[in-house]
Amino acid sequence: MRKEECFYLGKIVSKYSFKGEVLLKLDTDEPEIYEEMESVFVELGKNLVPFFIVKSQLHKSSLLRIRFEDVQDESSAEKLLGKGVFLPLSQLPKLSGNQFYYHEVIGFQLMDKVHGDIGSIESVNDASAQVLFEVKKEGKMLLVPVSDDIIKKVDRKNAIIYVETPEGLVDLYLN
């Protein structure tokens, strides 16, 4: 499985028992939907390696306590600490309305209420304090905040996101 075909589910943050159980910190708003998984992919080096789950249960809020099939002791569990855990994109829960996954909207057009078509989403920058659409228009890069106040409608069928940008934002980049 290639990393591009997967989404990041979380990170193995600690050992839990002497039997090799680990705690996975889930990167999700709905941890309960991942409680019944059969397998996951663990990033070992540059590869995603399948690990089959014997038992899992939620532990506190966003931690999932997991016992893997071939991890029987603390030293085996120790080798997994800090490793990223992934699932195939096909296992992402479907979103509706104005909710979307960042990878899902790459290539969508942004249509502003005042300026019309302001470009195509090249990427989503979530490394800053404010998540930003990186939008390309006429060779220029615009940064548009990803915010419920700005996003008015997500049209998946036509690959368009309708926005109402703050006054002067688009002019700052295009003029």
Structural features, described:
The protein is mainly beta. 6% of the residues lie in helices and 46% in strands. The strands form 2 sheets. A 6-stranded antiparallel barrel has the order 1-2-5-4-3-6. The protein folds into 2 domains: 3-91, Elongation Factor Tu (Ef-tu), domain 3 (Beta Barrel), CATH 2.40.30.60; 102-174, PRC-barrel domain (SH3 type barrels, Roll). Strand 1 and strand 2 (22-26) form a beta hairpin. The longest helix is centred in the C-terminal third of the chain and has 6 residues, at 169-174.
**How many domains comprise the coordinates?**
2
Q: Structural class given helices, strands, pairing? A: mainly beta
Mean pLDDT: 91
CATH topology of the largest domain: Elongation Factor Tu (Ef-tu), domain 3
Note the overall shape: elongated
Name given to the CATH homologous superfamily of the largest domain: RimM
Helix amount: under 10%
Number of strands: 12
CATH class category name of the largest domain = Mainly Beta
What's the Cα radius of gyration? 20 Å
Unreliable runs: none
Fraction in beta strands: over 45%
* Largest beta-sheet characterization: 6 strands, antiparallel, barrel
Strand order of the largest sheet: 1-2-5-4-3-6
Euclidean distance between termini CA atoms: 44 Å
CATH-level-2 architecture of the largest domain = Beta Barrel
- Supply the number of helical segments: 2
Spell out the helices and strands N to C: EEEEEHEEEEEEEH
